[in-house]
Amino acid sequence: MDDTLSPTPTGPAAAGPQTRESPLRVAVASFIGNTIELYDFFIYGMAAALVLDDVFFPNLSPLNATLASFSTYAVAFLARPIGSIVFGHFGDRVGRKSVLVASLLLMGLSTALVGLLPGYATLGSWAPVLLVLLRFLQGIGIGGEWGGAVLLAVEHAPRGRRGLYAAFPQLGPPVGFSAATGVFWLMSASLDEAAFASWGWRVPFLLSFLLVAVGLVVRLKISETPVFARSVAERTASRAPLAELVRRHPRELLLGAGAMAIVYTLFYASMTYGLSYTTASLGVPRNTMLALSLVACLFLATAIWLSATRSDTDGRRKLVLTGCGLAAVWALLLFPLLDTGRPVVMAVAMGGALFCVGVISGPMGAYLPELFPARVRYSGASLAYNLGGVLGGAVSPLVVPRLQSGFGSASVGWYVCTMAVVSLLCVRALPETKERELV
To answer: What is the pTM of this model?
Structure first.
């Protein structure tokens, strides 16, 4: 058993000397691990937008192949709550650190195996079946990742700076997305179309073997959080975290999920579907869109850092409400700007969308954990985060292509705007939490 979980006296001394690890060191470690897992998750979205329809669904019409490709993308969002429940249970019962090691292994190996999976031409209908299975396992792994990563940072952080330290794992998505985009851009720019479609798209997936090794080294060196160590020492850990969460904290769970929905909806609409739409429907070169995606990620990272750090003084709720309001407005501008086909204007469209995403998601690294007590914090924060992923990340890939095909790109903007209003109303019903003790 990890020495951070050994029995110690109750009370303030329960945390003991083993919990005096530098909060900054833990936050950086959380950032590295989360970045690796988000890289794994995002390269699938890139591949779904660019190549998976041809490799795994060549017998379908272009629209149906795109829908099938994005449906496999959506599978992971349906699996994420299951991962939250499984990893959340053990995270609240066994500890944050050990569960994060398991999630990293599951996510990384599932991703790498996609890079080794033969296509439809070799395996026939088994190819998409196995693709869906691996994507499902990806979803299980990522479902346990975010909650553990932010809890490592938040539960090590001093009370008045939890937003600051939670900003580090929250930077995992833009850095992971940038890395995924950069690798795909490199392969696309250096290979001809035939080579990229044959084997070039597989390289980003195979890199996951190396990244898993790096992530394991980082995660195995950090200690358990003081909050969980104290919970074990005082024997206050929940025996059935999910049941307790649903019985005692259903309001926080559901409203937290609703608050997260716009993050996934706007990110999918602007980046994943936006990449497919602009390359396939508008004829914008793939390399141009990948380069613009990298630029947009700078807006996301900037907004996350500014919003997360400001939340320590201004409050989590105020900043998330602001982000939802901005998202509702920008959703109506997104596709008209993309439809111009002009790279500078398209960069503004995508950058503005991701800036709104960042303003909302920046404080969430501290906000969602603060909504729940330590006994069910891993389960509560993870499940709220990933149920939001179902509302925004699983539903959107099924709805958005049909809306665009049947009613034009403006209808997609109105759909995203509606989701922003739903999230805003959910946040209005939640309390401010920045002054709460993590007990």
So the answer is: 0.86
